[in-house]
Amino acid sequence: MPRPNAFRNKFVCFQCTYSTYSSTHLKDHVRTHTGEKPYKCDFCTREFITGTHLRKHLKSAHNQYNFVLESLSCRYCGNVLPPDVLEIATHCQVCHYMPRPDLFRNKYVCYQCTYKTYSRSHIVDHIRIHTGDKPYKCQQCGYLSSTGSNLKKHIKYVHRS
């Protein structure tokens, strides 16, 4: 299959001409072909291709704005964490129940999964995957991103001059 925009979009769909600069976007797109909908609503029978679609559904159909708070408990110590990403990052640094095989390289351990890093900015970006927090907004189209680097890529590839 020809690769349109091969230099800008290195991830290409195997079934159609869709291409993107993001492996996550491609994974979500492929679900449109496979029919996989791994994100299920707890309030009704609807299922969704992406977590973002589920979050929008929960807000609009069920008036659920605080649904993320249920997942904000540390899997290691059980503490319920505040909804602030920076406070969660601090917890990921100081929780004594988290496994840290290498204290230098594993300065931060994710409260929800096995992700480990030395960098505070990396753990903050990673935590946003779990919380759904997208503080970076494109001024041209309203696209929201969890990281500044993804917003820069979006602007570069979608709104190129």
UniProtKB/TrEMBL annotation:
Residue ranges of coiled coil: none
Pfam families: zf-C2H2_4, zf-H2C2_5
GO molecular function annotation: zinc ion binding
Keyword Repeat: yes
GO biological process: regulation of DNA-templated transcription
Record domain C2H2-type: where: 11-38, 39-67, 108-135, 136-161
InterPro entries: Znf_C2H2_sf (IPR036236), Znf_C2H2_type (IPR013087)
UniProt KW keywords: Metal-binding, Repeat, Zinc, Zinc-finger
Keyword Transcription regulation among record annotations: no
PANTHER family: C2H2-TYPE DOMAIN-CONTAINING PROTEIN, KRAB AND ZINC FINGER DOMAIN-CONTAINING
Name of protein: Zinc finger protein 317-like
Species, as recorded: Diaphorina citri
